[in-house]
Amino acid sequence: MTNNIHIGSSFDDFLAEENILEETSLNAFKQTVIWQLEQAIEKQHFKKIALATALNINIDFLEKTLNPNDPNCTLENLERLAAIVGVELETNLAKIN
What is the pLDDT of residues 44-87, one digit of tens each? Predict the structure, then answer.
């Protein structure tokens, strides 16, 4: 039997030990929101150029907003995009162990 310190620990524990839990969680959240927004955009038959125009931004900025790794992908920008598409961005807090 090996003495692996990670046996029995959670993936969140591992990410916390590597000091990337917060960053990873935020990125996963953004990816989920973006996927849901893209589904709503497709369902509503929006064109990206029309969304960019409605948001008063250029298409390149819209693409950056839809990239979870880009600094322009903020919750504020995603919320503005959600409003144009006709959906509401909801967030909630969960208790940390």
Answer: 999 999 999 999 999 999 999 999 989 889 989 999 999 999 99
Q: pTM for the full model?
A: 0.75
Residue 30 and residue 64 in contact, taking contact as beta carbons nearer than 8 Å: no
Rounded-to-integer distance, Cα 75 and Cα 65, Å:
9
Are 72 and 64 in contact by the 8 Å Cβ rule? The answer is: yes
The whole-angstrom separation of Cα 31 and Cα 70 is: 11
Pair 49, 59: CB distance under 8 Å: yes
Q: Encoding tokens for residue 86?
A: 């006709």
Helices 75-85 and 48-55: crossing angle in degrees, nearest 10, is 110
